[in-house]
């Protein structure tokens, strides 16, 4: 029998897909970790499970007993946390900026999250979704409830989940024949966890941060200073003003950074869907474009791995909506134009 137990058992062990056109264009092997195939639909299922299991190990939550998971998120972490919570008998309170895709918000409502929408605010503002979620968790704790604030940005159980699963899976799937890994960061959990796991096995392996416009993490890696310019329609990645704890935790393992604009990322999103049957979201588009940039820097014959964070269906109303794209002067997929 090859059976797993529930949502938790289904997390991880995603395929590593050879991206044909990116590989042919660069003479490298460009491989994408298919996180859009996770049970909750994104790479964040791993972090969500890791954070809740860590809280259970610490005795903060007990499966089957009342408990509340509170988090501020661009959506995907909230989806993962809510699904894990449902499977364990907890409630979830999920704080999201209303600017995130309608599909993610609808999905959160559909799966029973107590969804709290907030206005987008700078991180220093008390109304920022992260600060709001922390306040809600503190208030519930003060009322004597059993509650955790998942705190995906600062909670190192996030990166640890990737260090224990994503990184070792990539190493095993490539048989150790991997020269570089690149991916964008929201919390930095994926990048740091994978970097720590791969560098422990091969210190010469190159780790490159992929950053969207409007994020200051590219300049932080390049110069040590956080400076952000421009903007991006991608969701869940990029930090304008502060370095998340989970990214800081991987800094010593990050060799370089590349910056990718939206048109370059969208070209990958549209091409992969139309020509290879792989439907991805915007952050995955940034990652694939970054893998191509890294391949060009390194030259032919290298193997570069990246992450396909989530699927295109999560962004139908944005990345695949001609009116949304035209308004922003972005390319429209020819078959939808
Ligand atoms: N892509 C998407 C679509 C996401 O939702 C996230 C998480 N916010 C990321 C990438 C970044 O992952 P991480 O938090 O591990 O840096």
From TrEMBL:
Cofactor dependence: pyridoxal 5'-phosphate
InterPro entries (UniProt xref): Cys_Synth/Cystath_Beta-Synth, P-phosphate_BS, TrpB-like_PALP, TrpB-like_PALP_sf
Pfam families: PALP (PF00291)
Listed GO biological process terms: cysteine biosynthetic process from serine
Keywords: Amino-acid biosynthesis, Pyridoxal phosphate, Transferase, Transit peptide
Superkingdom of the organism of origin: Bacteria
Pathway: Amino-acid biosynthesis
UniProt xrefs under Gene3D superfamilies: 3.40.50.1100
One MF term in the entry's GO annotations: transferase activity, transferring alkyl or aryl (other than methyl) groups
Residues annotated as domain Tryptophan synthase beta chain-like PALP: 10-310
The UniProt record lists the keyword Transit peptide: yes
SUPFAM superfamilies: Tryptophan synthase beta subunit-like PLP-dependent enzymes (SSF53686)
Membrane-spanning intervals of the chain: none
PANTHER family found in the cross-reference section: CYSTATHIONINE BETA-SYNTHASE (PTHR10314)
Name of protein: Cysteine synthase A
Source organism per UniProt: Siccirubricoccus deserti
């Amino acid at each position: 029998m090859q059976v797993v137990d529930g949502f938790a058992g289904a997390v991880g062990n995603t395929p590593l897909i050879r991206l044909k056109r990116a590989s042919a264009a660069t003479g490298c092997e460009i491989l994408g970790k298919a996180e859009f195939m996770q049970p909750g639909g994104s790479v964040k299922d791993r972090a969500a499970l890791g954070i809740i299991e860590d809280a259970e190990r610490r005795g903060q939550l007990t499966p089957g007993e009342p408990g509340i998971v509170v988090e501020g998120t661009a959506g995907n972490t909230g989806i993962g946390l809510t699904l894990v919570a449902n499977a364990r008998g907890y409630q979830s309170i999920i704080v999201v900026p209303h600017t995130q895709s309608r599909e993610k918000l609808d999905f959160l409502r559909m799966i029973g999250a107590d969804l709290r929408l907030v206005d987008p605010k700078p991180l220093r503002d008390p109304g920022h979704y992260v600060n709001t979620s922390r306040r809600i968790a503190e208030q519930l704790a003060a009322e004597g409830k059993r509650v955790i604030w998942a705190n995906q940005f600062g909670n190192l159980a996030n990166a640890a989940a990737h260090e224990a699963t994503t990184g070792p899976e990539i190493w095993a799937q490539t048989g150790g024949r991997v020269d570089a890994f690149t991916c964008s960061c929201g919390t930095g959990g994926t990048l740091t966890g994978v970097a720590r796991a791969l560098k422990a096995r091969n210190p010469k392996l190159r780790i490159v941060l992929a950053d969207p416009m409007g994020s200051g993490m590219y300049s932080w890696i390049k110069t040590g200073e956080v400076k952000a310019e421009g903007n991006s329609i991608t969701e869940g990645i990029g930090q304008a003003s502060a370095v998340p704890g989970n990214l800081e935790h991987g800094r010593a393992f990050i060799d370089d950074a590349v910056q990718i604009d939206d048109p370059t990322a969208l070209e990958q999103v549209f091409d992969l869907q139309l020509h290879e049957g792989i439907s991805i979201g915007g952050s995955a588009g940034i990652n694939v474009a970054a893998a191509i940039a890294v391949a060009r820097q390194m030259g032919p014959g290298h193997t570069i791995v990246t992450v396909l964070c989530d699927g295109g269906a999560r962004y139908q109303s944005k990345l695949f909506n001609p009116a949304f794209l035209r308004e922003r002067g972005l390319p429209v997929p020819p078959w939808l134009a």
